[in-house]
Amino acid sequence: MARIRDVTDTALLGAAFFARETARPDALLRDPLAGRLAGWRGEQLARGCGLGWIVRARLIDHMVLREVRRGATVVVNLGAGLDTRPYRLALPPSLHWVEVDLPDLLARKGIRLSYAKPVCRLTRVRLDLRRTRARRCLLTRLGRSGRAIAVTEGLLIYLKPLQVTAIAHELAASGFGAWVVDIASRPAVQLQRIRLGRSLSRAGAPLRFAPRDGVAFLCRQGWRVVAARSVLRTAARLGRLLPGAACRLAAAGLDSRVCLLRRAN
C-alpha cells in the first residue's frame, strides 16, 4: 500500500473505498463517480474494503435525507473532500448544497467532475477551515436562513478540541438547525494512531479529536442528540459484519457513532 503523503490523500482513499463498494452486487451505496475521483493514486492507497467508511456514509445519507424531508433548504458539508452526495442522492433541485474544503482539493475535484451534473444547486467554497475569521463569516452567511444543516464527515478527528468547540459554537450561533456528525471513540482513534499515526503525522494530518465522553462533548457546546447510530452494529444489521464480532469490538470501545444533533435552544 502507498503511503499517505498529505491530507488530501485521505479523500482519495475514501473515494477508492466507495468505488470498490459500488462494484459489489450487494453494495450498501453506489457512487458511480468515485472511481474517477480516486484514480490510480486512490487505488494505490486503499487496502481492504473500508467497511467503516461505507457504513458511516450510508448512515449520514439517511440522516441528511431525513433533514431535507423536514424542510432543510441548505446543506453545508464542511471538509467535503471528494463526497458526491449532490450527484448521487435523491435531492430536490431547489436544495442548495455547499461544499467547503481546501482550495487545491476542490479545484481538482471540480476538474474531474466537470462532465457530471449535480441534482441540486451546488456551490464549492475553497477555504481552509482553520482560518477562524473566514470560517465564522461563511457560517454566519450560510446559516442565516434558519433552514440550514451542517455535515462533518471524517473531519473532527483531525481537529484540536478547541477547534471543534469553536465550530460547534459557530454553527449554533449562526442559526444552523441540525448537524450530522461522526464521533470516533478514544480506543478506536488510538488504534488508528498505531496503524496510520506516523504516516498521518508526516502528512500534516495527525489524529487529534477523541473526547472521553463522545458526543456529550458537543452537547456541552449547545447541541442535543436526536439520533445516534453505531457503525459496528449497523454493519452487523446490514449483514456485513458478524453480530458476535460487532459486539466484541463494541465492548472493546472500537466503535464510532453517527449522530444527528439539533440546537439545544
Write the element-wise H/E pattern from the N-terminal end onward.
HHHEHEHEHEHEHHEHHE
Helix fraction by DSSP (H/I, runs of at least 4): 40-55%
Low-confidence stretches: none
In terms of DSSP E residues, the strand content is 15-25%
What is the CATH level 1 assignment? Alpha Beta
Number of domains: 1
Helix vs. strand class: alpha/beta
Note the overall shape.
globular
- Can you tell me the CATH superfamily? Vaccinia Virus protein VP39
Q: Could you tell me the number of beta strands?
A: 7
Number of helices: 11
Largest sheet: 7 strands, mixed
CATH topology: Rossmann fold
Mean pLDDT: 91
Terminal Cα span: 47 Å
Architecture, according to CATH? 3-Layer(aba) Sandwich
